[in-house]
Amino acid sequence: MSRSFSLPVLFSLSLFALGACSDAKPPETAAKPATLETDQQRMGYGLGVSVGRQFRGDGLQVDADALVRGVREGFSSDTLSMTEEEIGAAMQQLQEGHAERMKAEQEDIATRNKAEADAFLAKNGAEEGVVTTASGLQYKIITAADGAKPSAEDTVKVHYRGTLLDGTEFDSSYKRGEPVTFPVGGVIPGWVEALQLMPVGSKWNLYIPADLAYGPGGAGGQIGPNAMLTFEVELLAIEPPQAKDGE
Question: Does residue 73 lie within any of the structural domains?
Fold first, then answer.
């Protein structure tokens, strides 16, 4: 969930410079247009707004006037107000400050997610039909069955729907219109444990704490740090072993 600004922003700034300055007179004589009439003016303004919003969203504290001055000098002048060494040091400071803010933000989200998950699991564990295992995994049987149970070495076929604690769906084989097949030992620990408890033909709800899912690192853009996950899982089949070459 971390955000990265360096390449897109630098690219945007380059485009901003082209748009804003391609037809501009030297800064000391350029007149401010009363309206944004030309394509160059509108593109330059649009890119400027985009960059400004991105900086604001990322919490970057920069002086807007100095930013515009740097764009103009970088585009139209060989004489800069800072040396290359000073520019490099300033950019490093910007990057380091951004990284520190993102780290603090992720730590705050992780703390909040864990507190919310702990509260939910404590309450959910007391609900009728919910089983809590020694690892902290919780499950509830929706459809019981008496089929075979897979081992960690088996490959299974399942249908599933995954949601966050707030109900946001982040993945669903049902929506894709077909089940998925994978080795039991190749998924997150909460799934590995649950699948070995499930008989073929059964359907369970799983409540998986973060330490049995993706932990403090999260996954992708939707699963944040220390996010607990809930799944509706339908175990359809244990796939027959694949014959090895030469057998």
Answer: yes
Q: In the chain, how many domains are there?
A: 2
| Parent domain of 180 | 129-239
User: In CATH, what number is assigned to the domain containing residue 203?
Assistant: 3.10.50.40
Lookup: tokens for 223: 């699963």
Shared domain check, 229 and 149: yes
* Pair (77, 157) in one structural domain: no
Q: Does residue 76 sit within a domain?
A: yes
> Would you name the residues annotated as active-site residues?
160, 170-171, 188, 214, 231
CB 228 within 8 A of CB 136: no
If asked whether residues 151 and 221 sit together in one domain, one would say yes
Adjacent-strand bridge partners of 159: 234
- One-letter amino acid at 45 equals Y
In a domain, 111, yes or no: no
Asked if residue 209 lies in contact with residue 191, where contact means CB atoms within 8 angstroms, the answer is no
- The pTM for the full model equals 0.70
pLDDT in tens, the chain (247 residues): 334 444 344 444 444 434 443 443 444 444 555 588 898 888 888 888 888 888 887 777 788 888 888 888 888 877 888 988 988 998 898 888 888 888 898 899 999 999 999 999 999 999 999 999 999 999 999 999 999 999 999 999 999 999 999 999 999 999 999 999 999 999 999 999 999 999 999 999 999 999 999 999 999 889 999 999 999 999 999 998 875 555 5
